Amino acid sequence: MPRRGAFIVIEGLDRSGKSTQAATLLRRLQDAQISAKLIKFPDRTTPIGKMIDSYLRSENELDDHTVHLLFSANRWEFASSIEKSLQSGETIICDRYAFSGLAFSASKIRPGSQSYPLLDYEWCRVPDIGLPAPDITLFLDVSADVARKRGGYGEERYEKEDVQRRVRDVFVRISEHVQGGGGRWEVIDADETQEEVQEVVWKTVQELVAGVDAPLEKLWDDKREVTNVETLYM
């Protein structure tokens, strides 16, 4: 079986440096003569992506269930092309993926309540079952104090500290269930300088990007029971 490309996902809270690190990793791979491509979710250029962009900029209001399904649909728009690229030997870097969709949606709370999620964790997970599964997810963990000091913080709908705190809690729960149904999950301290984070990222993926012998897995296609996210807030 010929070696396929590696599927690398970079996740994290807002202003954790995901886009910067994804772009830097892409350049580093290309400099090393490794075929690679960067995809950023949501992709705001498609018809679905434009609806998402308008929502994130608070230019329109949508039902929360609808929003979650739009984000998932945006990923499915690229699923076949991602798989094709990986099988051809090209490495794919994703700036956000299904884990962000799950974390942001399952962290929403009912109006006037701080103890009960608006959308059920399992309901949020189901639309992404069967997407290509990443070989590794790099979670850039940034503290609230550092994120607040970074440019542009608070410009979009979800960039509020209470929201980011709940989102991080759900990411922790997701990380506990990823192994075996979504590849490796590595936490990286994003409070460090860009250069320091860049070196950790490179060291973590260096062996993987040489090529992958294992077949591409499907996301969440492992038949495991996942704990309901309500337990995070009890």
Automatic annotation (TrEMBL):
<dbReference type="GO" id="GO:0006235">
    <property type="term" value="P:dTTP biosynthetic process"/>
</dbReference>
<protein>
    <recommendedName>
        <fullName>Thymidylate kinase</fullName>
        <ecNumber>2.7.4.9</ecNumber>
    </recommendedName>
</protein>
<keyword id="KW-0808">Transferase</keyword>
<keyword id="KW-0545">Nucleotide biosynthesis</keyword>
<dbReference type="GO" id="GO:0005524">
    <property type="term" value="F:ATP binding"/>
</dbReference>
<dbReference type="GO" id="GO:0004550">
    <property type="term" value="F:nucleoside diphosphate kinase activity"/>
</dbReference>
<dbReference type="GO" id="GO:0004798">
    <property type="term" value="F:dTMP kinase activity"/>
</dbReference>
<keyword id="KW-0067">ATP-binding</keyword>
<dbReference type="InterPro" id="IPR018095">
    <property type="entry name" value="Thymidylate_kin_CS"/>
</dbReference>
<comment type="pathway">
    <text>Pyrimidine metabolism; dTTP biosynthesis.</text>
</comment>
<comment type="similarity">
    <text>Belongs to the thymidylate kinase family.</text>
</comment>
<dbReference type="GO" id="GO:0006233">
    <property type="term" value="P:dTDP biosynthetic process"/>
</dbReference>
<dbReference type="GO" id="GO:0005829">
    <property type="term" value="C:cytosol"/>
</dbReference>
<keyword id="KW-0418">Kinase</keyword>
<dbReference type="InterPro" id="IPR039430">
    <property type="entry name" value="Thymidylate_kin-like_dom"/>
</dbReference>
<dbReference type="Pfam" id="PF02223">
    <property type="entry name" value="Thymidylate_kin"/>
</dbReference>
<dbReference type="InterPro" id="IPR027417">
    <property type="entry name" value="P-loop_NTPase"/>
</dbReference>
<dbReference type="InterPro" id="IPR018094">
    <property type="entry name" value="Thymidylate_kinase"/>
</dbReference>
<keyword id="KW-0547">Nucleotide-binding</keyword>
<feature type="domain" description="Thymidylate kinase-like">
    <location>
        <begin position="10"/>
        <end position="199"/>
    </location>
</feature>
<dbReference type="GO" id="GO:0006227">
    <property type="term" value="P:dUDP biosynthetic process"/>
</dbReference>
<dbReference type="GO" id="GO:0005634">
    <property type="term" value="C:nucleus"/>
</dbReference>
